[in-house]
Design brief:
This protein has 186 residues and is mostly helical. It has one domain: Four Helix Bundle (Hemerythrin (Met), subunit A). Helices cover 55% and strands 5% of the residues. It is built from six helices and four strands; from the N terminus they run βαααβααββα. The protein has a two-stranded antiparallel sheet. A two-stranded antiparallel ribbon has the order 3-4. The relative contact order is 0.25.
Length: 186
């Protein structure tokens, strides 16, 4: 893959995270009925979208923090080079015209696990976005290419930290947009 500016990548991901946070903060002013509204019977409501993201944040945020704290690859590197697999995962999460539907694993599917949605779902999501911003700032001090993280899929699969950050932020973006569509549904 082609190297890209590590600084620009982290700035772009931070901007996207701030926008995710801004959108989610608008949900605080909405009545509970709007947050529980399903656009279609088979679709997730806004809180289910955020609960799904909280499930992944519970794995990825501590994983990234721990890997950054223990990496041997310290120092601000000028570039980040995505792996083929990491780029594929990140591109698959990023919203856009050619975005394809991906089924959530059963344990992360709030439609199958109602206990994922709690009274603190929105507050938990807002905190996770603040933590993501903190991690993006910390990531500026490690090598995004050489530092790797585990994945929630399997212990055998590792991604470069820069790819993991992209996957997490794009996944959040994808479902924040879905949550926004759900609250705007009539």
């Amino acid at each position: 893959m082609t190297p890209r500016s590590a600084t620009n990548l982290l700035q772009t991901l931070a901007e996207r995270t701030r926008e995710n946070l801004r959108i989610a903060e608008t949900f605080l002013a909405l009545p509970s009925s709007a947050l529980h509204r399903r656009p279609r019977p088979e679709s997730w409501n806004a809180l289910e979208c955020l609960a799904h993201l909280n499930k992944y944040s519970a794995y990825y945020l501590p994983e990234m923090r721990q890997r950054m704290a223990t990496t041997k690859h310290r120092g601000n590197t000028a570039t980040f080079t995505s792996s083929w697999l990491g780029n594929k995962f990140a591109a698959g999460m990023k919203p856009g015209e050619r975005m394809r539907k991906i089924s959530a694993p059963g344990n992360a599917n709030p439609a199958k696990h109602a206990e994922l949605v709690t009274e603190t779902t929105l507050a938990d999501f807002l905190r996770s976005q603040e933590e993501t911003l903190e991690l993006l700032a910390l990531a500026a001090h490690v090598d995004l290419t050489k530092t790797t993280t585990g994945t929630s899929l399997t212990n055998l699969l590792r991604l470069r930290l820069g790819d993991t950050l992209r996957v997490v932020v794009y996944h959040n973006w994808r479902h924040v947009e879905q949550a926004l569509r759900a609250v705007k549904a009539t």
